[in-house]
Amino acid sequence: MLEMTVLHIILLDITMLHIIILDITALFIIMLDITLLYIITLDIKVLYFTVLDITVQCIIMLHMTVLCIIVLDITVLHIIMLDIVDPYIILLDITVLCNIMLDIAVLHITILYIIMLDITDAYIMMLDITVLCIIKLDITVLYITVLDITLLYIIMLDIIYHIP
């Protein structure tokens, strides 16, 4: 299991990066406190919902559409409540719908799913998707946010898999 000291430092680094780049101090200080609290207690389901709330808040601040928030809500909820195979099928349907209406929404959802479904390939696939999207779009702050949220999910899943 991860040592809490190392974990705290990692989360602090991610939080400070958000504060410096996005200048939304209050939100990410709250994120750090809540996240550490739930990680220490290892209340995994609550932690999932906490990260979801943070993600939605970030999307709102980045002026994303309501569609992205709704889909994110649905997909993460399915990940929590269903077997790991079922939400992947749901992802395919929802991604097709979002791809028609909002490319950026697909980016968020795809990265979140990759991290939660397959942590082994997550790093490689995350890099591929991020590089591809950066080439097509020029929304620097958005991709920094996505990468940081992704790291948060990786840390969280690492804890889950290391529970004795």
Explained architecture:
The chain has 164 residues and is mainly alpha-helical. The chain has one domain. α2 packs antiparallel against α3, α4 packs antiparallel against α5 and α4 runs parallel beside α6. The chain is globular, with a radius of gyration of 15 Å. The N terminus and C terminus are likely disordered.
Provide a quick synopsis of the model.
This protein is mainly alpha-helical. It contains eight helices and no strands. The chain has one domain.
Q: What's the arrangement of secondary structure elements?
A:
Blueprint: H1 4-22, H2 25-41, H3 44-61, H4 66-81, H5 85-101, H6 103-117, H7 122-136, H8 140-161
Order of helices and strands: HHHHHHHH
**Helix- and strand-based class?**
mainly alpha
Number of helices: 8
Count of β-strands: 0
The major sheet is characterized as: none
Summarize model confidence as the mean pLDDT. Answer: 40
How large is the share of residues in beta strands? under 5%
Proportion of residues in helical segments:
over 70%
Q: What is the 3D form?
A: globular
Low-confidence segments = 1-164
- How many angstroms does the end-to-end distance come to? 7 Å
- Using the CA coordinates, give the radius of gyration: 15 Å
Number of domains as seen in the coordinates: 1
Transmembrane segments: 6-39, 60-82, 88-116, 137-163
Keywords: Membrane, Transmembrane, Transmembrane helix
